[in-house]
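Hello K.,

You asked for the raw outputs rather than the summary table, so here they are, unedited. I folded two proteins back to back in the same session to keep the settings identical. This is the first:
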Amino acid sequence: MLLGEMIAVALQSIRANLFRGFLTMLGIIIGVASVITMVALGSGAQKAIDEQIEALGANILSVSSGGMFRHGVARDAGTLTIDDAQAIARDAETVAAVVAEKSGRLQVKLGNRNQNLLVVGTTPNFQEVNRYRLFAGQVFSRADNAARRRVAVVGHGVPAKLDTTADGLLGETIYLQNIAFDVVGILDEVGQVGWRNVDEQIWIPLDTARFRVFGDDELDRINVQVAPGVEPAAAIIDVERIMRREHKILPGKDNDFSIADPRQFFNVRAAATNIFAFLLAGIASISLIVGGIGIMNIMLVTVTERTREVGIRKALGATRMNIMLQFLVEALVLCLLGGSVGILLGIAISQAISRLAGWMTIISPAAIAIAFAFSAGVGLFFGLWPARKAARLNPIDALRYE
C-alpha cells in the first residue's frame, strides 16, 4: 500500500468516527496549545525585560545612601551630598558621566486639576545619560540649575494625567507644592523602568529642588555612567574607593552607602522568568504524554474493531510491514492533526492574552516547530505498540474474529 493510500485510509477512519477522533486528539491539542502559549509568554516577558534593561541606559550604576546589613543588624546609614557627586565626576577614571538626583512625590497642579507625581531634581545631563528622547521643547540648562530657575521637564504621560495634551502643557505653568514652574520640555515615551513609570515623572534642576522645593542639601541617589570599554565591576571598585575617602570610612569599616548595578537585578529577573517559563512549558508538555496515552488506547480499540479487516488485507497479500505502517500512519495523522489544531489554538490564545491582559507575547517559530515535531514523535511512540499488535495478528484467526 502506498503512503498516499495509507493517509487516505487513516483520514477515512477518522471521518467514520469523527467525535471519537476529536476526543482522541484533544490531549494533543491542549498540550501543543499550552506549550506554545507558555513559551510565547516567557519570550514576551524576556523581551520586556530586555527593553527595560535597554531603557536603563549604557552601564549605569546607582549609588545610594545606607550601609549593608551584617549578621541581621542594620548599620548606620550615611548621607549623599553634592560633594560626593562632584568627587566621583572629578576623580573616577572609569566614569563617563555623573547624574545626581533628589526626588519625592509632590502634589502637582494645573488649573483645577492635580496629581501626586514623582518629582526628580537632577542635573541637566540626565536626558543624555539615560538616553531619553525629547518629544517637544528642551531640557533645562546648567544656567537654569545655577540660577535655581523654576523650570520643569515632564514625562510623556504627565499631560494626560493633568487632562491636557503635550501641546497644551508645553509653556504652561504648573505648581509643585504651590511653587510655580514653567514647563519647558516634554520627553518622548519611555515606559516602565523597574518600579518606576518614567512617563509619569517630572524633572527639575537639582539646585532648585534642593533649595526651593525640598529644603535640604542631601541627595537620594547618584547615577554613574560607566565609561565605554570599562567593566561595571571595575567602575564599582573605583567609585567605592572615592566614596569611602569622601565619607572618611576607615579600613575594615562597613560602607555607609551602597552601589548597585540595576542590570544585575534585571538579569536575575530574566533568569527567573526563563526558568518559570520552561517549568510551565514542561508541565504543559505532560498533556502531550497524556494525549499520546489516549491515542495508544484508542488505537488498541481500533485494532480490535478492525481485526477482520486486517485478516482480509493479509489474505489479499498485505505484509506485516504494510499492516504495521497502516496503523502507525493513522496514529501519526491523529497526532499531526491534533498538533496543527493545537498550534492554531496556541497562537490565538497568545494573541488574546496580549490584547486583553496587555502582556507582551512573542510567538516563537522554534516553539511551533518543536511542539509539532514532539506531537509527531508522540504519534510514532504511542502508535507503535498497537501497530505491532495488528501486524502480528494471525490471518486465519483474524478472519474468524466476530
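The second followed immediately with the same parameters:
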Amino acid sequence: MRGRRLRARRRTLAWAVVTVVHPIRAAWLTKGGTGAQNYDEFADETEITSIIAANPRSALAIEMPHYAPDSLGKTFAAALPDASSRLSCAKEDGLYAPHENVVVLYRITRGDRVSYGLWCMVDTDQISTSADEPGLVIRNEDVFPEKVRERVMLAETLGHLLSPVLLLQTARGEELHAALARACSAQGPAVTDADAAGGRHEIWPLDGSAPLARELIALAGGGELVVADGNHRSLAAQTGGLPRFLAVVTTPASVEIAPYNRLVRDVVVPSFEPGETVRVYTRDGGMRSIGLPRDPALGFVENLDHALVERVLLGASLALQPGDKRITYVGGDYPESWLMGEVDAGRADLAILIAPVTVDDFIEVNLARRKMPRKSTWFVPKARAGLVVAQL
C-alpha cells in the first residue's frame, strides 16, 4: 500500500513540473463542418476557391480570405476584414463551442493507420533556430517572408489562431503515444471530421487541470519538440509578439514523410547528366533519372537531395532563387501523375521528383540544431485547421 502511495506521489510531482506546453485558456471547438486543409497545402491555389464554394463553413474562407468567392479580386490585406467577419459569424451561428482551460485529444485514422496528438499552447520564447540559440522548440527550415507577414496580419486581425504548428516530441514520444492511445480509447470523441482523402479526424477536450491532462502535458513537454509542419506559423508567432502559439504535439510513430516535389515553368530546360540523385520529367524527354554533383567539402545536410535540387539544379542550372514564382512546391498529397499532367498540359516545363527524407534523419538533423533544406519535409497526416481555435 505504501509503495503504491509513493508511486502515485511521484507521478503527481512529475505532472507538476514546469513545461513549455500549456492548456488553451480560451478555445473554440468545431461542432462539425469547419475543418480544412491548411492554407499552405495547395499546389494550385484556385483549388481553395472551389473548396470554399462547396463548403462556405470551411476555415479556409478565414485563413485565405482573398480566395473566398465573395472576396476574389482583393489582396490578402484588403480581404482581412472579410476574414474577421466570417469568424465572428461562425461563432455567432454556433459552428464553434467555447471551452476554457482545455487541452484537446486528437486522433486521426487513415485506413489501418492511427495517429495521435494533443492540441495545446506552447511558449514562443522556447523556439530555437540554431545551435547557439537556447530553447526546447526547434524550428528547422528557412521560410518565405511574405507568408510570415500574412500570418502575422491574420492573427492581429482575428485575435485567434486557426491552424496549429505540428510538433514532434522527440524524447518521450513512445510514452506520449501510448498515453494518448489509452486516453482516446477510454471515451468517444466529441466531434468527428473527415478530410478529402477519407481520413477521420476526431477531437475531444480535457479539463486542463485534471490529472489525465496534467499527465499528457508533462509527456508532451518532456523533451525537445521539433517543428514538423508550421515553420511559417511559428515564426509568425515570434514576429507578432505572441507569448504562446497553437500546436498539436504528436509522436514519431504517428507520422510519415511523403515526397515534396517541384514544378518549374517558363524556363529553358537544360540538358541533364544521367545519375541517381532525382528524377525529372519533361514533355520532350519523358521521365528519367539524373545526377547532381555532391560537394564533399559540405556537410550531410547540404548534400541531401532537396539541398542539391535548390543549389545545383534550380540555382546553378536555372538561375532561380527559392522564392521565384516560377517554382511551385508540390507536397505529397499530389501524385506523380498529377505533376506529369501539368507538364504535358503545358502549365509547367519541368517536374522534379525527390525521394523523401526519413523521420529518423529529420529528427537527427534537428536535434543537432541544423536546418533542413527548404520545403523538404511533407509530413502526413496533417493536422486540420479550424477544428480547434485558440482565442488570443
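The longest strand covers residues 96-110.

Happy to rerun anything if the numbers look odd on your end.

Regards,
P.
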